[in-house]
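(Protein data)
===
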Amino acid sequence: MNSLIILNIQAVMCLTAILVIYVTYLRPWFAAQPFGPAVLPGLLVHSFRFVGLTMLVNGQIDPELPRSSIQLMAFGDLAAAVTALAAAIAVAAKSKMATPLVAVFVVVGGVDFAIAIPTGLKAGVFESYLGGMWIVIQYYVPLVLLTQIYITYRLINHLRGYSGTAVLRRDAQ
């Protein structure tokens, strides 16, 4: 079986498991929270995206992969991690900069995903030797993708003036 097919099977399994955990256990809590406490755990998850820099360490992935593609993906992850951590600190401190920094993160993280996925596919990253990055792609990337979507969703509702409980009521309909 081709590596890309295996990767996709594993990613779908992981996404499904995360969604079941979220819907069953986490959604009621998150939906009842105001914006800051609801997005803070996800921002902290994203603050570990610096792990993408591992792709730049010699011997960690296939040396035949295009270096420019790997750098683009690695530094995009780093930018997302830095903006997520800045937003998390602002949210935790209840700073007036919290919402703007979350918005910056949403844009940076979203652009990183929009660039990294097609770049990785075009470069053949997902069909090459990835070493320990295979585990990151299987378990961390699906979690990061879902939390990126959730943070974006909560930011949009926050900017529209919905509270956490308003989001819960809208979700229940």
